Write the structure tokens for this entry.
Amino acid sequence: MIRNENEKTDFFFCVMICMLAMTLPAFARASDQLEDYWMEAGTSDGQILVSFSVTGSAKMDRIGCESIEVYEDTNGRWKEVESLDEFDEGMSDRNSRGYINTIYIDGEVGSYYKVIVTIFAEDENGRDAREETFYVTCRA
């Protein structure tokens, strides 16, 4: 049973990720390390939500989100307001074939943000990473 707005938001994003995973065609094998990946940024309840899914070609030494960089538009200039890396909580996993998560970052309602997300997979043969940039306006 869903009890509050945060649980509704979490449930909504989990359903959205599952639906997208079923409807989007899989990428052709991206590399020796990356088989499939997906990332997205959005906002809800004054937070920036960064969701990602990474699947390795086999069991990886480390896999997940390498970095999230958040910049706020301040009078036409980008000012870094948050930076996370693969060693921060919830960003990556060890000895796994895949990793999926949503990271919540506090934002200011009405502010415009640039969010740079980099996913990765690493094994004994090397590391491969892919990056995407998203632009979002934080909403209540």
Observations:
- Helices lie at 5-23.
- Strands lie at 34-44, 47-74, 77-85, 92-106, 112-123, 126-137.
- The two ends are 23 Å apart (CA to CA).
- Residues 22-28 have pLDDT under 50 and may be disordered.
